[in-house]
Automatic annotation (TrEMBL), chains A, B:
Statement: the UniProt record of this protein carries the keyword Transcription regulation: yes
DNA-binding region: 55-74
Residues of the HTH tetR-type domain: 32-92
Keyword DNA-binding annotated: yes
Name of protein: TetR/AcrR family transcriptional regulator
InterPro entries, sorted: DNA-bd_HTH_TetR-type_CS, Homeodomain-like_sf, HTH-type_TetR-like_transc_reg, HTH_TetR, Tet_transcr_reg_TetR-rel_C_sf, TetR_C
GO MF, one annotated term: transcription cis-regulatory region binding
Organism: Peribacillus psychrosaccharolyticus (Bacillus psychrosaccharolyticus)
Keywords attached to this entry: DNA-binding, Transcription, Transcription regulation
DNA sequence: TAAATACGGAACTGTAAAGTTCCGAAACTA
DNA sequence: TAGTTTCGGAACTTTACAGTTCCGTATTTA
């Protein structure tokens, strides 16, 4: 950025002004394993300090990097956060070994591994702390979800499979059901500060999700 | 905050240290109509700039007050915001004239007045922008925010009345149903950045709430 | 082996905003 | 009417942090 450099010491370069030869093959190579360390540090700090509570010094320190190293990769805090969020949402979807217990209820519960709960709560804290950042920078496309896509996709897959088996009417509103799961998890974590644990999830499934999916009425189309 | 003040200029006061006589009857009286103006200004700015985007100068300017006037009432930005949030949630619960259309569906929808939608969205934007503030200061008691209490109470009233009429089984999980409403509204506003409008609410009621309440099964106890 | 670029670390600059203090004017009380 | 507290407004101080620059060292290519 802004590499105009009005130096007068080297006049010999004037001739090459229009050459535009970056000649990138020189010097020490950039260590791209540092990228992940820095992004990870950024996510950690975002999770428990929020966007405005996070300083570039914190990130650099946590990643054991110099600030110059950070700014060599991302030209601003906003850019770093933007990419950190993308990195956080890189999904390791393992569609191959989906749970298959025979009932939707147990499939959904099987997806709730302790590790995924912990990770999900961390993501929630990150989003929660984004606050004013979201008002400055329009977060990626689609209004900024993407963060729940991974879980949401798996849930949708399980429910669709169950509907396909004939467990529920074909007109069941799968989208809305998926929204309920994610919304309840988020609200419970962010606002109520309670864990989205197995017991609560079972109550939600039995008391809300399954009855809603079983509903013989055709609910109006919801698509947002 | 940090009002220790180790001044040495006035030794005469030392004698009265334990007197504690504010003698408040002197001088111009504080104009308490300014309080509301300032709190309202704070809420407005919180709504479209967030906690960290809001400056005390903005608040003072918007309320046409001096900063000294603000700090005479609240000793810090955090304190001001704290009270502004409380003030925002002062509920004008009009339990007397609850809607009574005869069906729960229409009662719930009737509660969603255009004015309350607009107000609700403003509140959501405020919460959205709270971001890091929530991580610093544990907001109000009970872990929750209380911002949804007003609406939640009315919803619970309507649903209970409907259950009392015999529209739904007596074992219907009213608490959980209320949680669904509030959670979906919050998530939709905070994360999806979409309006919680009449159409979506109708879809939610028809597709989720009513089927869940109608559920003949006894769901496990959920009480948190 | 020399030039170029990377690294972690630290010092530095510039700016924005929290919080304080002072001003002249207004309002209240003894 | 004199002393006290309020008001809006503005100037001021202090602090924190984004972003830049420089250092000594390590790594890579020509």
């Amino acid at each position: 950025m802004k590499k105009i450099k009005t130096e007068t010491s080297e006049q010999s370069e004037v001739v090459e002004l229009l050459a535009e030869k970056p000649t990138r093959t020189l010097g020490r190579k950039r260590d791209h394993t540092r990228d992940a360390k820095i992004l990870e540090a950024a996510i950690d700090i975002l999770a428990d300090a929020g966007f405005d509570g996070m300083t570039m010094d914190m990130v650099a320190a946590k990643a054991k990097a110099g600030k110059a190293t950070v700014y060599r990769r991302w030209s601003s805090k906003a850019e770093l956060v933007q990419e950190a969020l993308t990195w956080m949402n890189r999904s390791h979807l393992e569609m191959e070994h989906l749970p298959d217990t025979g009932t939707l209820r147990d499939d959904l519960l099987a997806l709730l591994k302790p590790q995924s709960i912990e990770e999900g709560e961390k993501k929630l804290r990150v989003i929660m702390g984004l606050g004013s950042f979201l008002q400055q920078v329009e977060l990626s496309e689609e209004g900024g979800i993407g963060i729940f896509d991974s879980w949401d996709t798996l849930n949708r897959e399980l429910i669709n499979r169950s509907v396909g088996r004939g467990d529920f009417p074909a007109h069941a509103d799968v989208d809305l059901a998926c929204q309920v799961i994610v919304s309840m998890a988020a609200f419970r974590g962010l606002v109520l500060h309670k864990a989205f644990d197995r017991h609560f999830y079972a109550t939600l499934i039995d008391g809300i999700l399954l009855p809603a999916l079983k509903n013989p009425q055709i609910a109006s189309n919801n698509k947002d």
